[in-house]
Each structure stands twice: as C-alpha cells, then as structure tokens.
C-alpha cells in the first residue's frame, strides 16, 4: 500500500501523513525534508542557490536518512548529523524552492525516495509523489487549503498562539508561502499539480481527524485490510 499526499505549503500534508502512518502502521516519508536538507547544506556552504551545477553537486553528496527521536517524533540526518530543526528555519523556507527546481537535484532525491519506499507500505508526502515518485500509488490525495489559513497555521506552528496573533509575521509567512507555491507550480520539472486519479481534499474546513478518516477510508476502498482498517469501517 502506497499513499501519496501532495499539495501546497502548509496544507497539512505532514500532519495528516504522520497520523495515517501511525494509525495504519505504515512508514512515513517526508520528501520536503530532503529538499530542505539540500538547501540547508547550500546555505551553510555559501553556495549560490541559482548555480544549478553547484547545487546539484551538494545534492548528490548528501547522505540523508530518517530516524525516530525519544518522544517518537521523526528526525532527519545528513551524513550522521541531526538537521531536524535546522531545516525548518525561515531562511530554508525562502531558499528551498530554488534548489528543488533543479532537475538533477530532483533526480537524486527521487532515487533516494524510491529506495526508502522500496519495502512498501508507505505514506509519502510532497509535491510530486503521485505524479512522479510513486505514480502507481494505490491512494493519491491532493490536499489544499486557503492560503490565509495555511499561513495562520504555519505561524501558530512556529511560535505558538502568540505568534499566530502577530499579523505582520503572518503576512510575511503568507508572502513566502505564495511565492514558494508559485515557484513549485510553475517549474518545468515535476511541477506541483494534482496527479491523475487523485482525490482533492480542502483541509480549510476539515479537522485533522476528519482528513485521516477520509484517507483511511480511501485505503480500505483500495484494498487495505491491515492495521486501522476496522476503525474506518472496512
Ligand atoms: O512543509 P512545507 O509544505 O512548507 O514544505 P515541504 O513539504 O517541507 O517542502 C519544502 C519545499 O521542497 C517545497 O516548497 C518544494 O520546493 C520542495 N519539494 C519538492 O519540490 N518536491 C517534493 N516532493 C517535496 C518538496
Ligand atoms: O506539511 P504541510 O506543510 O502541508 O503542513 P503541516 O506542517 O502538516 O500543517 C500545518 C499546520 O496545520 C499543522 O500545525 C496542523 O496541525 C494544522 N492543521 C492541519 O494540518 N489540518 C487541519 N485540518 C487543520 C490544521
């Protein structure tokens, strides 16, 4: 069973993918974390993100792996160094789409993603999972939400309710999300778009639990009989 979840920044992909993986005992694959790691390494080495050749060399040299922290949350490492927090900064947010638009960078990341998913039973989320990485996924979801709702969620996620009330900060996050969506949707290689056969879900008016239930139901309809299937009425 492969579940592919794609959608714009802050639509809730990670939250819902993690929850589905936990409920059904599948492996969670955060592909955005991989592009973020490439962008982080470029920034740390003062590499110009518009220099495709240099960015490609960094991507090819990255040794990215996922682990589990003591509290059960996922960790991301590159060459053995934990980069889980370092890849979530505003600076990485701002630069990651440039790195992700380079075809050779994508080629390297997609190869690693398929390797990580080769054992099957995966919930993968990103921008091109249903279109490119796992086009034969049994369940494909295109998750969207109103940009303002996405920016508000991201502000709250970054700094708690207080930050969510900071309208200037929220506007900055909104501008960056919109800019990133534009680059991700208009790039030539693997642009963000709904995959053929994907189910569109607008999370603006749904709770995380409703989203999870809906996806587990789609899994059951696609033949899933493993963990979590009973609760979905399968
Ligand atoms: O969490 P958020 O939605 O803000 O972003 P992310 O999923 O961590 O992805 C960060 C960036 O990586 C995106 O804006 C894309 O530029 C790129 N990305 C991609 O090109 N393809 C993917 N499968 C996943 C992410
Ligand atoms: O991975 P992506 O960037 O698409 O989004 P995320 O980081 O999973 O979600 C951003 C925030 O939206 C999280 O704090 C979620 O709790 C929240 N949220 C959601 O994912 N779905 C809802 N229906 C409501 C809120």
TrEMBL record:
GO MF term (any one): dCMP kinase activity
Record region (Disordered): 153-207
Compositional bias ranges of the Basic and acidic residues kind: 169-191
Keyword Protein biosynthesis: no
UniProt-annotated binding residues for ATP: 7-15
Family in the record: Belongs to the cytidylate kinase family. Type 1 subfamily.
Protein name as annotated: Cytidylate kinase
Source organism of this protein record: Olsenella porci
Gene for this chain: cmk
């Amino acid at each position: 069973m492969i579940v592919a979840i794609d959608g714009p920044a802050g639509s809730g992909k990670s939250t819902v993918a993690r929850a589905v993986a936990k409920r059904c005992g599948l492996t969670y694959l955060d592909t955005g974390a991989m592009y973020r790691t490439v962008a982080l390494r470029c920034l740390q080495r003062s590499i110009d993100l518009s220099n495709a050749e240099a960015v490609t060399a960094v991507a090819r040299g990255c040794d990215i792996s996922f682990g589990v922290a003591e509290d059960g949350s996922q960790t991301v490492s590159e060459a053995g160094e934990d980069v889980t927090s370092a890849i979530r900064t505003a600076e990485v947010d701002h630069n990651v789409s440039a790195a992700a638009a380079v075809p050779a960078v994508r080629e390297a990341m997609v190869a690693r993603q398929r390797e990580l998913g080769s054992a099957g039973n995966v919930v993968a989320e990103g921008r091109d999972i249903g279109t490119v990485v796992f086009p034969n996924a049994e369940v494909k979801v295109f998750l969207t939400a109103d940009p303002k709702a996405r920016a508000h969620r991201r502000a709250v996620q970054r700094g708690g309710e207080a930050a969510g009330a900071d309208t200037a900060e929220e506007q900055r996050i909104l501008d960056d999300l919109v800019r990133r969506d534009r680059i991700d949707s208009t790039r030539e290689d693997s642009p963000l778009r709904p995959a053929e056969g994907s189910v569109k879900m607008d999370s603006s008016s749904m709770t995380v639990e409703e989203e999870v239930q809906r996806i587990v139901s789609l899994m059951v309809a696609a033949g899933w009989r493993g963990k979590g299937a009973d609760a979905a009425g399968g």
